[in-house]
Design goal:
Layout lengths: L1 E6 L9 E6 L13 H10 L9 E5 L8 E6 L8 H14 L4 E5 L5 H11 L17 E6 L4 H25 L7 H15 L2 E5 L1 H7 L2 H7 L7 E7 L10 E6 L1 E5 L19 H16 L4 E11 L10 E4 L5 E4 L6 H14 L4 E6 L3 H7 L4 E5 L2 H13 L4 E3 L17 E2 L7 H13 L4 E5 L5 E2 L9 E2 L4 H10 L1
Parallel strand pairs: 1-6, 2-4, 2-5, 5-6, 9-11, 9-14, 10-11, 13-17, 14-18, 15-16
Antiparallel strand pairs: 3-4, 7-8, 8-11, 12-13, 15-18, 19-20
Helix pairs in contact: 2-3, 3-4, 4-8, 5-8, 7-9, 8-13, 9-12, 11-13
The structure holds ligand BES and zinc ion (2 copies).
The site of ligand BES has 16 residues, from helix 10.
Length: 479
Amino acid sequence: METKLAYQSLEKIEADAVAVVLFENEPAPTELKFASSWLEELRASGEFSGKSDELAVLHQPQGIKAKRFVAVGGGTKENFDLRRATATAVRALKQKGVKKLAWWLNGGDPEAVAEGAIIGNFEPDQYKTANQGKSLEEFCAIAATNGREFDRAFERGCILAEAQNFTRSLVNEPANRLTPLILADRAKAMAREAGLEFEMLDQDRMRQLGMGSLLGVAQGSAEPPALIIVRYKPETAPKTSDHLGLVGKGVTFDTGGVSIKPADGMEKMKYDMAGGAAVLGAMKAIAKLKPDIAVTAFVPAVENMVGGKAQRPGDIVKSLNGKTVEVLNTDAEGRLILIDAITYAQRQGCTHLVDAATLTGAIVVALGHVNAGAFTNNEALLGKVMAAARSEGEKIWHMPLDDEYKDLLKSAFADLSNIGGRWGGAVSAAWFLREFVGDTPWVHLDIAGTAWLDDAKPYMAKGPTGICVRTFTKLALNW
Ligand code: BES
Ligand code: ZN
Ligand code: ZN
């Protein structure tokens, strides 16, 4: 889809449709005089009252050049979410065959509009050879007055949303088409195009280094593992010596291993690399938006399978940092690969760590599909992550990490067990990571409930959401 920002008056816009946001209990802007009787009729009939997700279409409007005039409900001004309203309108209008959509900004934030349009236009239908969903070909935001800040905000929104869609298409790849090595290739291609440094540690290198925890998970699969590393460095020496490490779980498929998962719904476990894909998407945006801080992404990529060499419950592995782990459940594999990546990130000089992982079913029990769970050993860093998430409309809820939960991970035969029992499962998983993080400021985001939509929303297609891409990028930009 082509996206642009133009400075024009409403009447002169040429498009299949021009959309305008209208609020509940608010009079329409005076510029819409040409449609006033239609709008009054709509409100009187109760067909359109300005509630969010509402849409009304007027064909052949008189007094403007566009073929259709579209009223988009914004809800109340206090709760208005322009990103969401744009995405909802795009999804509805592309279904009606609109190819070229103009959006009358009327003072709205061009960044949010760009994001909403691009995110709303995404369909995970890359493998449909027939009946592919309809999509917009051109989206044009219309502003009244010129401004460099406006242009830059629009451009930033496009970059963020395109990076998010890149992540969504990675997450949507089935495991036969996205093995750990293929994920590494995709990361490499992205890095080359974006001008970032790429490195991959292969199985031999990981053996030399002693990443026994990661390798234990990988050994059940015929597909070799990879530790994917992508580096961004500011062009001129940054003001800060901080170095942000983004770590993402990259399990390209999670069968559970010998502690195998039930067949029902297992197909969804292709999204167990959503954290890894999110940090790669963030790097793609970071390369273009150039924050003033060094950022390195680490994606431990493995397939959790049940081959003849698979690890067994009761196996004891030695992690890169030297601690031993008793693997009481092979399905708690995410934490096993993350700890070796975290130790490696620390050795690479990262001063702050943020990870994203589809880590536990327990976080879905706790928070459903609305909020991602956030765990931290450093309130200040969590504050930065929360602020970035809030500005991007991504929901995150602060979860506890009291010392008492740590005892859940005691093992009779090794330093730690990889599971903490039935209760508080998302917390013990986070504590497991924290045991390896030590004092480095760190935030862990458990995105098991928020990285995948089981049903389409008015503003987003079913499937991968691309959560964390925008938050991570903004975190680096705001640093
Ligand atoms: N990938 C899963 C977590 C998950 C569950 C992601 C549902 C998305 C949706 C993870 O590897 C896992 O299986 N965790 C286990 C941990 C348990 C064995 C302690 C879980 O949550 O059941
Ligand atoms: Zn698992
Ligand atoms: Zn998993």
